[in-house]
Write a structure and sequence with these properties.
The chain has 732 residues and is mostly helical. Helix content is 47%, strand content 7%.
């Protein structure tokens, strides 16, 4: 049995008494700012310089008052400061303490889990950390592992991250036990045999694949299409709408200076105002539906012609702070006459400019008339569309998006006539010291214009103001999807967005995969994917250690995996008798034959016989590194001197092919495969149609199209001949 240790209970730390938290942790505060002291039950880091925008205000306050037991409250404080100040003389000698200070976000998450764990111990009747045993540790992990319904029935499991947090809080109490003044776990406690929290939680290693899934194509396609439509078509009108809302708020606010409070009925002022409405044929402002419901509840008649009239707005336009009920007797007549003359209508969006619908089926007003809240919501939807375009096409992380500021758009550069380079300035927060590291992103024009739109929609155009601030993307996306699927979005011809998870991490992952698996994909159908790849590469070249370098490294990893998968698939096709076609087919077939020979038991030069996919991939890796994907062919760039595209461009020493100039029917390093057949067949069918539409006098054009048509037919025939196991393939 372990002997219980008697601890001090005067709530005074033996090592951190009266410590200045920010000074010990190396955190900077503005002058004349209250500094949190160790003995404070609330550590306020709100004013710390350099905290990321992504960190909410509630996360910047460490509240220890939720821990009832004063001994445990002191333990929590000591643990938090030890993690913030690992070089403190009392912390540095601890053998298992962190050697690098944790970020405030990480410490706040550890504190939340510690509070939860201590409350769980109290509920189980455990009143001292020294009484915790391995069974308690296992029980708490199980408690945090499962999701229970109201009847305490298991209905699911928590994420690996939640389980790791549950295990980590116990590990931290063990690792820092010598530091605690009033209570500590037993010296012989080794939960889970000393395993790390990640191992206990069975966290995926991430070495074999990225844990974040991409956005499903059926969700991404309508989402990106709707976002691009809103940014390009509705954006300029939304800017004007936002200005109208701000101006109306300024004029119609009860706090507007010069408004008269009370007094006699302003008959003359109302008469002049209503005459102006009649003269300009402008409908009177309409109340929102919930205000109409309030009037009905107060006894208004549903047949009253003044029921939907926003009399308060009219009163402020007439110079009064509000419309008093006693005024109605004198003003009802003029108001009813005005309603009969010009009607009542929503204030915003009247006489909206016409645009072409997203499906090009009609021309219609860009918006229907809107109440104020509807107008504000629509501006917010357009702002969300800008965020979606920016995140999807640039690959910026959430923290990097939130660090964008007004004025982040750099002046476009034109290194050569007609070629523009667009840059955005922000900060990299992840993995960087407090305050982040300034960085720039090279982006394509649609991203640059989306940021420009977001600046125009901003209420405060002052340079340096946060462009988006801290936002919850999942909430904003849900509103965006609901609006697109609503009658307002469907009226504009937008495709409905199906259910499916979308977050910023998934969008970044999708971009990486789309770039790696080009030329196909959803992004390629909406935005010139090659331009995105070039911009990302330029961003890497400009700042090799920057954020775009990390994105490009992820893209290259996916591209390498894709190439290996394609080469393996084509090798398996070769084994099944489905051969490649095209000028480079013979060379590729000979290579596959040499690999196949190494896999034969009789031909193997050594006792080991390589048969698994992993072993085959090892043999195919070098050839996979030479693979480049063309729109309708594979390019095996093994010998630059034989590349037709480099000869045509006059750059025979280049280290990469010019896939956009590829003539795969003539290049000796190009091959065609069954997956390319539909593209060539479609090209042949389309060319045949064009030939039939040409007049007799267009001989030059007919000759060129006839050559294209014959080449497409020849490629299709070669693919069919090389794949005899796939019959019934005919041109449409």
């Amino acid at each position: 049995m372990t002997t219980a240790v008697v601890f001090l209970i005067d709530e005074r730390s033996a090592v951190f008494a009266e410590a200045d938290i920010c000074r010990e942790a190396g955190l900077t505060l503005p002058e004349r700012t209250s500094r949190p002291i160790f003995e404070n039950d609330v550590w306020d880091f709100t004013q710390v310089v350099g905290l990321p925008v992504q960190m909410g205000m509630s996360m910047r306050r460490f509240d220890f008052t939720t821990i009832v037991d004063p001994r445990w409250r002191l333990v929590a404080k000591e643990l938090m400061l030890a993690m913030l100040a690992p070089r403190h003389p009392a912390v540095a000698p601890l053998p298992r303490a962190y050697r690098t200070a944790l970020h405030l976000i990480s410490c706040r998450a550890r504190l939340d889990e510690l509070v939860r764990f201590l409350a769980w111990l109290t509920a189980r009747g455990v009143l001292s950390l020294a009484r915790i045993d391995t069974q308690d540790c296992e029980a708490y992990l199980a408690h945090r592992r499962y999701v229970l319904d109201e009847n305490d029935v298991v209905v699911g499991e928590q994420s690996h991250g939640t389980r790791r947090s549950a295990a980590q809080v116990v590990v931290d109490l063990v690792n820092y036990r010598e530091l605690f003044t009033t209570d500590r776990v037993a010296a012989d406690l080794r939960p889970w045999g000393g395993a790390t929290a990640s191992a206990v939680a069975e966290m995926p290693s991430g070495r074999t694949q990225n844990k974040t899934p991409p956005v499903e194509d059926e969700v991404l396609q309508p989402t990106l299409a709707a976002a691009l439509f809103l940014v390009s078509m509705l954006g300029p009108h939304a800017v004007e709408l936002a200005l109208q809302v701000r101006e109306a708020d300024r004029l119609s606010s009860r706090k507007t200076e010069g408004l008269r409070v009370g007094g006699s009925v302003p008959v003359a002022e109302f008469a002049e105002l209503l005459d102006e409405y009649r003269r300009t044929c402008t409908a009177l402002p309409m109340l929102a539906e919930h205000h109409v419901a309030d009037r009905l509840a107060d006894g208004w008649s549903p047949e009253d012609p003044l029921l939907p009239v926003a009399t308060g707005v009219l009163a402020r336009q007439a110079g009064a702070s509000q419309f008093w009920a006693r005024w109605m007797l004198s003003l009802r007549g003029p108001l009813e006459n005005a309603v009969a003359a010009v009607g009542v209508k929503e204030v915003f969006g009247q006489d909206a400019v016409e645009i072409t619908a997203a499906d090009t089926s009609s021309v219609l007003p860009w918006t229907m008339p809107l109440h104020r809240l509807q107008a504000v919501a629509l501006v917010g939807i357009v702002r969300t569309a800008a965020i979606i375009v920016l995140a999807t096409v640039s690959g910026m992380r959430a923290s990097e998006l939130m660090e964008l500021r007004i004025g982040c758009r750099k002046t476009p550069e034109e290194p050569v006539p007609g070629l523009h380079r667009y840059r955005l300035a922000s900060k990299v927060v992840k993995g960087q010291p407090l305050g982040g590291t300034a960085d720039e992103w090279v982006v394509i024009e649609p991203v640059y214009r989306a940021v420009e739109l977001a600046e125009d929609l901003h209420d405060d155009r002052k340079d340096g103001a946060p462009l988006f601030g801290r936002f919850a993307f999942t909430v904003r996306y849900r509103w965006f999807k609901n609006w697109v699927n609503s009658p307002a979005g469907q009226r504009l011809g937008l495709t409905e967005i199906p259910d499916g998870q979308v977050n910023l991490r998934m969008l970044r992952r999708t971009l990486a995969l789309e770039m790696a698996y080009r030329p196909g994909g959803v992004l390629a159908s909406k935005i010139h994917l090659k331009h995105i790849a070039v911009a990302t590469t330029e961003g890497y070249a400009s700042r090799p250690g920057g954020a775009q370098a990390e994105l490009l490294a992820e893209v290259n990893k996916h591209e390498s995996d894709r190439n290996l998968g394609l080469v393996l698939a084509e090798f398996r096709n070769y084994q099944e008798g489905i051969l490649p076609a095209g000028p480079g087919a013979r060379s590729l077939t000979e290579f596959f034959a040499s690999i196949d020979e190494k896999l034969e038991p009789a031909a193997a030069p050594a006792p080991k016989i390589q048969r698994s996919d992993r072993d085959v991939l090892n043999l195919l890796t070098k050839r996979a590194e030479t693979l480049h994907i063309g729109p309708a062919n594979f390019c095996w760039f093994t010998d630059p001197s034989r590349a037709l595209c480099l000869k045509l461009a006059g750059t025979p020493t280049a280290d990469r092919p010019l896939v956009g100039m590829c003539d795969s029917a003539r290049c000796p390093q190009a091959t065609h495969h069954p997956c390319h057949r539909p593209l060539w067949a479609e090209h042949a069918t389309r060319t045949k149609t064009f030939l039939g539409d040409l007049g007799a006098t267009r001989k030059t054009e007919r000759s060129r199209l006839q050559s294209d048509y014959e080449r497409a037919l020849r490629v299709v025939a070669e693919i069919d001949a090389a794949a005899p196991t796939n019959p019934d393939k005919e041109l449409a």
